[in-house]
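stuck on this one:
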Amino acid sequence: MSITSVSLPGAYGLESGFTPDTTQRHVLGTRIDVLDSYWGYRRLVYAKNAAAAYKVGYVCVMDVDSVMTIAPVNTTALNAPMYVCMHPMASGTYGWYIEAGMAPVYSYVTVAVNVVAAIDSGHSGMIIASGSGHLPVHGVAILANDDKQATATLISTIGTTKLKLSTVDGFFVGGVISATGITSAQTVTAIDEAKKEITLSATWDSAPSGTIAFNYDGTANEFWQLCRFRYPHGATAVV
């Protein structure tokens, strides 16, 4: 995956897909515009994870000190901008969050295409369709997942849980892999951008071959939906 920083050449993490770490590399709150060969335009903000493990796609809120917390439940008015976690983030780590652009967002139930999304009333940072008692996430347009269904060709296997692929563009930690020989909902647990390798959560069922498909399915009530975040768009209702 090729990522070019439009506004801050040499931004930390460009070569590794913006992998977070425990060292602060930039001033907190730094924003950059990037062009991603797979996801297109994105605006990112550099921040610190507060004190929990965040999954890819969690919707977060940033405080005045540029510290991210997971968007809270059981509130209908927050009056704060929201961001999407683009990598698994351990407690206290630093990294980039998506302020605008296309992103897979962590979901509790399916939200129909072009319906206003909201934070689920019982699950922090996860989206559902907007309704009474929910916190709307304005500026999110739900897209069909197959608009960006990542696939790659298998180059070789390494051991029994690692695959070398033609590309890892569009793959992220947590998503489900399906292919000939991989049929038990194995998930991606690690990605090596430089080597174009992914690690699976469990050994394959039989010798893998051919096309490797990456799915947003996850598990029941824990999956991803493709969104345009903070893009101008029309909505079916005003909330």
